[in-house]
Amino acid sequence: MGHDQDPSNSGLRLVLGLSLTTEETTTSPSPPTMVDDHLCLLKPTPMKPYFSSFTTETEPSLTLGLSSTESYLKQHVAKNKMDWNHKPYGEDPVELSSHEASPHSVASSFSSGRVVKRERDLSCEDVELAEATERFSSRVSDEDEDGTNARKKLRLTKEQSTLLEESFKQHNTLNPKQKQALARQLHLRPRQVEVWFQNRRARTKLKQTEVDCEFLKKCCETLTDENKRLKKELQELKTLKLAQPMYMPMPAATLSMCPSCDRIGGGVSNGGSNKSPFSMAPKPHFYNPFTNYSAAC
DNA sequence: GAAGGTCAAAGGCTTACATCA
DNA sequence: TATGATGTAAGCCTTTGACCT
Questions:
Q1: Which residues form a coiled coil (predicted)?
Q2: What is the pLDDT of residue A85?
Q3: pLDDT-derived band of residue A151, with 50, 70 and 90 as boundaries?
Q4: Which of A92, A111, A135, A279 lies at a CB distance of 3.0 to 4.6 Å from A274, suitable for a disulfide?
C-alpha cells in the first residue's frame, strides 16, 4: 500500500512555522483539509480546533501535508459540486477556516457539513438543504457579540427541555424533517436538537446499564447465598454419610440427576467408576452459575 | 476558590447504503 | 449481472469544556 515508496517522492510536506493570522484565515477560506491519505495540515493544538485559527496572535504550528493536496481538493470539490471560493453556505469564514484549523475537524466537517446529500429520504431535500446550511452556519453562533470565539455553554430552557423530552418519548431518533420541525419549534439549530437526542440516548443507555448492573448484583448475591446454603447442605450430608454404619440405598424418588454432569445426587457416585459408594468425587467440580445447573455438583 | 457533577458539543469511529467502474 | 472500491449519512462512544452547586 505504498509503504515502500521513496519518501522523497511521497509528496508529503512537513512545515514547522507560525500559524496564520486571523486575517489570513478569514479572508482566504481554504478548502478543507483531508484526512487519511490526504491529510495536509496538522497543528499541535488539537483542542479548540475552531478557535485556534481565530487567534490574533501567532503561534507555533506544525504542518504535515501533501504537495498534491490542492489538486486533490480541486477534484474533490468538483466531484462534490462544491465551490469553496464563493462560501456556499452562510458566508461563514469561521466554518471555512475551521477546516484549516484542525485535521480532526476535517472528516467531521466534511461529513457533518453534508453539503452534498444523497439522502435516502429524498422527500426531505429542502430540509436537508436547510440543515446543511445550518450546519455550516451553526458555528457562527459560537462567536460572541464582541467577536471572540469562546465556546458558550447552552442551557436549554425548561420549555425546550420539556418539549424535547416529550418528543423523545414518542421516538428516540429523529428523521431530518422531524429534526427540522422540532428545531424550528424550539428556536434551536437542528444540530442542537440532534446532539440533544444523541446525549439523551446515551443517558438512557447509561441508566439502563445501571439498572442491569443492579440486577446482576442482586443475582450474584442470591447465587452466593444459594451456594453457601448448598455447601452447608453438602457438608451435612457428608457428615450424615460418615455417621451411617452401612450403605443404605436411598429411595428412587429422592434421587435426582444433575443435567450438567449426569451425576446422580444423593450420594451415588458418577459412572460407577468408584468402587465405594461412599467415596467422594475424584476431582474438584467447580460451580459456574451460568453453565452449571446445580451448585451442589 | 477548589472540587465535583451535569450536560451541550466536538471529534473519531463504525456501519449501512448508494454509486460507479 | 456480480463484485469490489469509494463516498456519504447517521449513529454511537469518548472526551472536552462551560457552568453550576
A1: 213-243
A2: 31
A3: low
A4: A279
Q: Is the CB of A49 under 7 A from strand B?
A: yes
Tell me: pLDDT of A90 over 50.
Answer: no
Band (A72; pLDDT cuts 50, 70, 90): very low
- Closest by CA to A40, choosing from A112, A115, A100, is A100
Q: What are all long-range contacts of A237-245, with beta carbons under 8 Å and residues at least 24 apart? A: A237/A267, A241/A267, A241/A278
CB atoms within 10 A of CB A224: 12
Q: What pLDDT does residue A6 have?
A: 34
User: DSSP code of A20?
Assistant: P
Strand C contacting residues by CB (7 Å): A 47-48, 79-80, 110-111, 114-121, 128, 150-153, 155, 173-176, 194, 198, 201-202, 205
Q: Domains along chain A?
A: 11-151 (no CATH), 153-241 (1.10.10.60)
For residue A15, pLDDT over 70 is answered with no
**Which helix (H) or strand (E) element contains residue A69?**
helix A69-79
